Amino acid sequence: MIEKVTLQMSENGKFRTADGAGCDTMNPKALLLYAAAQCAAQTALMIMRKERIAPKRFEIGFSGELSTQELRSESVFTSFHVVYNVECGSEDDQAKVSRAIVLTHEKHCGLVRMLRMIAPVSHEVAVVSTEPAKA
To answer: What InterPro entries does the database record attribute to this sequence (predicted)?
Structure first.
Protein backbone atom coordinates (compact mmCIF):
# COMPACT_ATOMS: atom_id res chain seq x y z
CA MET A 1 0.00 0.00 0.00
CA ILE A 2 1.14 3.53 -0.70
CA GLU A 3 0.49 6.36 1.74
CA LYS A 4 0.80 9.88 0.26
CA VAL A 5 0.68 13.51 1.36
CA THR A 6 0.70 16.49 -1.02
CA LEU A 7 1.42 20.03 0.12
CA GLN A 8 0.93 23.26 -1.81
CA MET A 9 2.44 26.64 -1.05
CA SER A 10 -0.09 29.36 -0.28
CA GLU A 11 0.32 33.03 -1.16
CA ASN A 12 1.90 33.75 2.23
CA GLY A 13 4.60 31.09 1.73
CA LYS A 14 3.06 28.51 4.09
CA PHE A 15 2.53 24.92 3.02
CA ARG A 16 -0.91 23.32 3.40
CA THR A 17 -2.26 19.93 2.36
CA ALA A 18 -3.70 19.95 -1.15
CA ASP A 19 -6.94 18.34 0.03
CA GLY A 20 -7.33 20.66 3.03
CA ALA A 21 -6.93 17.85 5.56
CA GLY A 22 -5.57 18.81 8.95
CA CYS A 23 -3.14 16.92 11.13
CA ASP A 24 -5.98 15.86 13.41
CA THR A 25 -7.48 13.73 10.61
CA MET A 26 -4.24 12.03 9.51
CA ASN A 27 -3.09 8.62 10.65
CA PRO A 28 0.40 8.41 12.24
CA LYS A 29 2.06 7.22 9.03
CA ALA A 30 0.58 10.10 7.03
CA LEU A 31 1.75 12.46 9.78
CA LEU A 32 5.31 11.23 9.32
CA LEU A 33 5.08 11.94 5.58
CA TYR A 34 3.49 15.33 6.31
CA ALA A 35 6.37 16.28 8.63
CA ALA A 36 8.95 15.20 6.04
CA ALA A 37 7.17 17.12 3.27
CA GLN A 38 6.99 20.25 5.46
CA CYS A 39 10.69 19.97 6.28
CA ALA A 40 11.73 19.51 2.65
CA ALA A 41 9.43 22.25 1.36
CA GLN A 42 10.46 24.82 3.96
CA THR A 43 14.16 24.00 3.55
CA ALA A 44 13.97 24.34 -0.25
CA LEU A 45 12.03 27.60 0.05
CA MET A 46 14.63 28.98 2.48
CA ILE A 47 17.44 28.17 0.03
CA MET A 48 15.47 29.75 -2.84
CA ARG A 49 14.89 32.92 -0.82
CA LYS A 50 18.62 33.17 -0.11
CA GLU A 51 19.08 33.09 -3.89
CA ARG A 52 16.39 35.81 -4.17
CA ILE A 53 13.96 33.51 -5.94
CA ALA A 54 10.26 33.61 -5.16
CA PRO A 55 8.51 30.65 -6.78
CA LYS A 56 5.09 31.35 -8.26
CA ARG A 57 3.87 27.88 -7.36
CA PHE A 58 5.44 25.13 -5.27
CA GLU A 59 3.94 21.71 -4.64
CA ILE A 60 5.56 18.73 -2.97
CA GLY A 61 4.26 15.18 -2.85
CA PHE A 62 5.73 12.74 -0.33
CA SER A 63 4.74 9.10 -0.58
CA GLY A 64 5.79 5.94 1.18
CA GLU A 65 5.37 2.30 0.26
CA LEU A 66 4.12 0.25 3.19
CA SER A 67 4.98 -3.36 3.93
CA THR A 68 1.31 -4.43 4.04
CA GLN A 69 -1.56 -4.24 1.55
CA GLU A 70 -3.70 -2.31 4.02
CA LEU A 71 -2.86 0.20 6.71
CA ARG A 72 -2.05 -1.55 10.01
CA SER A 73 -0.24 -0.54 13.15
CA GLU A 74 2.56 -3.01 12.35
CA SER A 75 3.01 -1.65 8.78
CA VAL A 76 6.45 -0.21 8.11
CA PHE A 77 7.74 1.90 5.25
CA THR A 78 9.86 0.05 2.71
CA SER A 79 10.60 3.04 0.44
CA PHE A 80 9.83 6.74 0.03
CA HIS A 81 9.40 8.94 -3.03
CA VAL A 82 9.32 12.75 -3.22
CA VAL A 83 8.00 14.80 -6.15
CA TYR A 84 8.92 18.49 -6.26
CA ASN A 85 6.89 20.68 -8.66
CA VAL A 86 7.94 24.33 -8.88
CA GLU A 87 6.91 27.15 -11.18
CA CYS A 88 9.27 30.11 -11.34
CA GLY A 89 9.28 33.37 -13.24
CA SER A 90 12.27 33.01 -15.55
CA GLU A 91 14.45 30.46 -17.26
CA ASP A 92 17.43 31.78 -15.29
CA ASP A 93 15.68 30.85 -12.05
CA GLN A 94 15.06 27.27 -13.20
CA ALA A 95 18.66 26.16 -12.65
CA LYS A 96 18.79 27.87 -9.23
CA VAL A 97 15.53 26.24 -8.16
CA SER A 98 16.75 22.81 -9.30
CA ARG A 99 19.97 23.31 -7.35
CA ALA A 100 18.04 24.39 -4.23
CA ILE A 101 15.93 21.23 -4.41
CA VAL A 102 18.95 18.97 -4.89
CA LEU A 103 20.69 20.61 -1.91
CA THR A 104 17.53 20.20 0.14
CA HIS A 105 17.04 16.56 -0.77
CA GLU A 106 20.67 15.44 -0.58
CA LYS A 107 22.06 17.55 2.26
CA HIS A 108 19.99 20.05 4.20
CA CYS A 109 16.63 18.46 5.06
CA GLY A 110 17.13 16.55 8.29
CA LEU A 111 13.94 14.50 7.97
CA VAL A 112 14.80 13.28 4.47
CA ARG A 113 18.24 12.32 5.76
CA MET A 114 16.67 10.52 8.72
CA LEU A 115 14.17 8.65 6.52
CA ARG A 116 17.08 7.40 4.40
CA MET A 117 18.15 5.43 7.48
CA ILE A 118 14.79 3.62 7.38
CA ALA A 119 14.37 2.98 3.65
CA PRO A 120 15.51 4.31 0.25
CA VAL A 121 14.29 7.82 -0.64
CA SER A 122 13.96 8.60 -4.36
CA HIS A 123 12.89 11.91 -5.86
CA GLU A 124 11.93 13.68 -9.05
CA VAL A 125 11.96 17.37 -9.86
CA ALA A 126 9.83 19.37 -12.29
CA VAL A 127 10.74 23.04 -12.59
CA VAL A 128 8.95 25.15 -15.17
CA SER A 129 9.22 28.80 -16.13
CA THR A 130 6.30 31.07 -17.03
CA GLU A 131 8.60 33.31 -19.06
CA PRO A 132 8.31 32.84 -22.84
CA ALA A 133 11.21 30.88 -24.31
CA LYS A 134 14.01 32.94 -25.83
CA ALA A 135 14.44 32.57 -29.55
So the answer is: KH_dom-like_a/b, OsmC/Ohr_fam, OsmC/Ohrsf
Q: Distance between alpha carbon 85 and the CA centroid of its chain, in Å?
A: 8
**CA 29 to the chain's CA centroid:** 16
Measured between alpha carbons, how far is 118 from 58 in angstroms, rounded to an integer? Answer: 27
Output the CA torsion sign for 92, 97, 98, 99: positive
Q: Which of 75, 77, 74, 95 is nearest to 86 (CA)?
A: 95
Q: Is the dihedral of CA 91, 95, 98, 104 positive or negative?
A: negative
| Closest CA relative to residue 80, chosen from 29, 110, 120 | 120
Angle at 60 between CA 59 and CA 61, to 5 degrees: 125
- pLDDT tens across 21-44, in order? 889 999 999 999 999 999 999 999
The closest alpha carbon to 27, from 1, 54, 9, belongs to: 1
Helix/strand/coil percentages in the chain, nearest 5: 40, 30, 30
